[in-house]
TrEMBL record:
Membrane topology value: Single-pass type II membrane protein
Gene name for this UniProt entry: MGAT5B
Protein name as it appears in the record: alpha-1,6-mannosyl-glycoprotein 6-beta-N-acetylglucosaminyltransferase
Native source species: Bos mutus grunniens
Enzyme class: transferase
Annotated compartments: Golgi apparatus membrane
Keyword Hydrolase: no
Ranges of residues in domain Glycosyltransferase family 18 catalytic: 184-777
Keywords: Glycoprotein, Glycosyltransferase, Golgi apparatus, Membrane, Signal-anchor, Transferase, Transmembrane, Transmembrane helix
EC identifiers of the protein: 2.4.1.155
Pathway(s) where this gene product acts: Protein modification; protein glycosylation
Catalytic activity: N(4)-{beta-D-GlcNAc-(1->2)-[beta-D-GlcNAc-(1->4)]-alpha-D-Man-(1->3)-[beta-D-GlcNAc-(1->2)-alpha-D-Man-(1->6)]-beta-D-Man-(1->4)-beta-D-GlcNAc-(1->4)-beta-D-GlcNAc}-L-asparaginyl-[protein] + UDP-N-acetyl-alpha-D-glucosamine = N(4)-{beta-D-GlcNAc-(1->2)-[beta-D-GlcNAc-(1->4)]-alpha-D-Man-(1->3)-[beta-D-GlcNAc-(1->2)-[beta-D-GlcNAc-(1->6)]-alpha-D-Man-(1->6)]-beta-D-Man-(1->4)-beta-D-GlcNAc-(1->4)-beta-D-GlcNAc}-L-asparaginyl-[protein] + UDP + H(+)
């Protein structure tokens, strides 16, 4: 009788109990092997997977060496399992084990015979081993084939020597060294191969010619333009308020202002609709990105809204949004960099690649902060689409500062200039330079009943000081002229303070603290005088005061303030000289509503106060600062300004046949011949052109104003020819073409005429005693200097 070791029985029992899970495990290994093999070989049978980038060429089995290694490990694992199961089978075949099973202690009849199980395991192991060998053979064949294909493609993936694409080879060299510097290249399918470089540079960017073996129909097919829709005036601004968002004090201020002006916008839309009649108004898709409100730019304005900070920019932006919406255009508003990237289609990365899609907007309104953000994140698309950008620029950008090369060579480079845009793309708060487009803002327009009520309620001896921040009251010498004013009027202030009265405010001034805008308007409606301390420059408050029946008194600057002598203007892209706190009020409104005096001259100042007290003025608002005036102006810009398709100027020294001039009867200037055909695509219409030869040292801006006209830089190309000088009877001993923002001009002495070589440098601003400038002027609509008589 054979005895069985109890420990051996226990061991056998444990092995038998675990056989069923083990079988499942073996089957799982087999299934996993099959799945892994199919996955590994998936790329072998298809050139491209659904998720692949369209620019990726799959020429090898992904993870080939890893596939072989895993299969070998699986084969080794199965061989080890076979050895262990072989030991189990020997125990299973012993007679003691069968007798024990016969006694019913083990249910061996439920299990397959040991040799059968072993044969199956051995068969799986052999199959996996065979598969590993075959995979190895396939991969070796694939690598050999890939090397042959690569050898054949190498000729097709070399940078071509095409004179139409002179930068191609240099860009390929750059990609070899730097393609990993930005993840956006990999996003577009660049993987370090020559082919991927050329595909990217020819299909995503445009430095290289298209590869002949690529499918060009997909890459060259441009999206079909959407059908044009006519813009319809809107009067309900509820949706605009939703688009403006919330969460920032600046946005809350802008929304309150928009809501307060809703009725005036609606009335202005009705008036303009009647004026335009059946004129077609194409609807534009417009993105408005307010860069200075983004966190990335610091957003210094929002925290100061409730502390007396400057509100001029927010006033203007609120009115721009309202005007664009009322005119019926599609509007998208962003105040964060993340929103901007999402709306533009910026690819992931550091901003070196173009956008992932064609720009879905016809126009983009932004500021200098937003302009910088777009340049950083749009890659080459910025250069492609910058003609659609309009930059809200409070103080203006002159052409000499805008042209990067010229500004660098001649000392005009600043932190805000050198963008190489058409100068008309910069849009200002006031019309201080015709080189830029005048955007403006609006003030409240009163009806006749309201005007009479204000006149009846005026306090003849009440003055309000222009300045909400205590720092403005630190002006040296203010006590002298304020004490003179205090003899005649009660002085009120609206200076912000938290707990105690600002020490800068004299005791005889009645300070109301920072007032909400409606309450501030009521204060202006009572006051006789609104007095400025010389700062801030060119804000909206003086126009609001004049519109509410106040006289505005301001300081004359001698010498004038500019970037050469005043810290505030230093670094701004303009050489403009400011002769008073508010030049627009002085030059375009003037007495009796605006008085400009020397505050350092006590006698002149006191005489002005006495005269103002006896002067009766009605509330006055220039038409261009009404809601209707702003709608009219922006409508004209949107429908007529096109800096993407504008025809290029004729080369220097030539005269376009469709632009003949005649000398005026008094022989002082040139006019557009009445019987001449109009230049197509030119706006303003060319027949409004009047050309004058300015005196030496006079800018074209001033020369045109002296004749009751406005300088129009769009007309410079017509005058940039020898013919213009000849018809003005200017004796040119020689003609030269150079880059200079003062050209075209006549040099004295020397009798030499100079033409402009760079169209972006045509400039109304600028003067020199050496030159008499040839200046293009035009007429303008009453109360609307931005538009000529026939500009609508």
């Amino acid at each position: 009788m054979i005895t069985v070791n109890p420990d051996g029985k226990i061991m056998v029992r444990r092995c038998l109990v675990t056989l069923r899970p083990f079988r499942l495990f073996v089957l799982g290994i087999g299934f996993f092997s099959l799945c892994f093999l199919m996955t590994s070989l998936g790329g072998q049978f298809s050139a491209r997977r659904p998720g692949d980038s369209p620019f990726t060429i799959r020429t090898e089995v992904m993870g080939g060496p890893e596939s072989r290694g895993v299969l070998r490990k699986m084969s080794d694992l199965l061989e080890l399992m076979v050895k262990r199961m072989d030991t189990l089978a020997r125990l299973e075949n012993s007679s003691e084990l069968h007798r024990a099973a016969g006694e019913g202690r083990f249910a061996l009849d439920r299990l397959p015979a040991g040799p059968g199980l072993m044969e199956r395991i051995q068969a799986i192991a052999q199959n996996v081993s065979d598969i590993a060998v075959k995979v190895d053979q396939i991969l070796r064949h694939s690598l050999l084939l890939h090397s042959k294909v690569s050898e054949g493609r190498r000729d097709q993936c070399e940078a071509p020597s095409d004179p139409k694409f002179p930068d191609c080879s240099g860009k390929v060299e750059w990609m070899r060294a730097r393609w990993t510097s930005d993840p956006c290249y990999a996003f577009f399918g660049v993987d370090g191969t020559e082919c991927s470089f050329l595909i990217y540079l020819s299909e995503v960017e445009w430095f290289c010619p298209p590869l002949p073996w690529r499918n060009q129909t997909a890459t060259r097919r441009a999206p079909k333009p959407l059908p044009k829709v006519q813009a319809v005036f809107r009067s309900n601004l509820s949706h605009l308020l939703e688009l403006m968002g919330s969460g920032k004090e600046s946005l809350i201020f802008m929304k309150k202002r928009t809501k307060r002006f809703t009725a005036q916008w609606a009335l202005a839309a009705q008036r303009l609709a009647q004026k335009l009649g059946g004129v077609r108004k194409d609807q534009k898709q417009i993105l408005v990105h307010i860069g200075f409100l983004t966190e990335e730019s610091g957003d210094v304005f929002s925290p100061r809204v409730l502390k007396g900070g400057p509100l001029g920019e927010m006033v203007q932006w609120a009115d721009i949004l309202a005007a664009l919406y009322v005119l019926g255009h599609g509007l998208r508003i962003t105040v964060s960099l993340k929103e901007l990237q999402s709306n533009l289609g910026v690819p992931p990365g550091r901003g070196n690649c173009p956008l992932t899609m064609p720009l879905p907007f016809d126009l983009i309104y932004t500021d200098y902060h937003g302009l910088q953000q777009m340049k950083q994140h749009m890659g080459l698309s910025f250069r492609k689409y910058r003609c659609r950008i309009r930059v809200i620029d409070t103080f203006g950008t002159e052409p000499a500062y805008n042209h990067e090369e010229y500004a660098t060579l001649h000392g005009y480079r600043t932190n805000w200039g050198y963008w190489n845009l058409n100068p008309k793309q910069f849009m200002t708060m006031f019309p201080h330079t015709p080189d830029n487009s005048f955007m403006g803002f609006v003030s409240e327009e009163l009806n006749e009943t309201e005007k009479q009520l204000i006149k009846d309620g005026k306090a003849s001896k009440m003055a309000v000081v222009y300045g909400k921040e205590a720092s403005i009251w630190k002006l040296q010498g203010k006590e002298k002229f304020l004490s003179i004013l205090n003899k005649y009027m009660e002085i009120h202030g609206t200076v912000y303070y938290e707990s105690q009265r600002p020490p800068e405010v004299p005791a005889f001034v009645k300070n109301h603290g920072l007032l909400p805008q409606p309450e501030f308007q009521q204060l202006l409606r009572k006051a006789k005088l609104f007095i400025g301390f010389g700062f801030p420059y060119e804000g909206p408050a003086p126009l609001e005061a004049i519109a509410n029946g106040c006289v505005f008194l301001q300081s004359r600057f001698s010498p004038p303030h500019s970037s050469l002598n005043h810290e505030f203007f230093r670094g701004k892209p303009t050489s403009r000289e400011v002769f008073s706190q508010h030049p627009y009020a002085e030059n375009f409104i003037g007495k009796p509503h605006v008085w400009t005096v020397d505050y350092n001259n006590s006698e002149e100042f006191e005489a002005a106060i006495q005269a103002i007290m006896t002067t009766q003025v009605d509330p006055y608002l220039p038409y261009e600062y009404t809601c209707e005036g702003m709608l009219e102006r922006i409508h004209a810009y949107i429908q007529h300004q096109d800096f993407c398709a504008a025809p290029g100027p004729a080369p220097p020294g030539t005269r376009a046949p469709q632009s003949p001039f005649i000398l005026a009867p008094n022989a002082t200037h040139l006019e557009w011949a009445r019987n001449a055909s109009l230049a197509p695509g030119v706006w303003p219409p060319a027949h409004s052109l009047r050309a004058w030869l300015a005196a030496a040292g006079t800018a074209c801006t001033d020369a045109c104003l002296d004749h009751g006209l406005i300088c129009e830089p769009s007309f410079f190309p017509f005058l940039n020819s020898q013919d213009a000088f000849q018809k003005l009877q200017v004796p040119c001993d020689g003609i030269e073409s150079e880059m200079n923002h003062l050209y075209p001009a006549f040099a004295q002495p020397g009798q030499e005429c100079f033409l402009q070589k760079e169209p972006l440098l045509f400039s109304c601003a600028g003067s020199s005693t050496k030159y008499r400038r040839l200046c293009p002027c035009r007429d303008f609509r009453k109360g609307q200097v931005a538009l000529c008589q026939d500009c609508l």
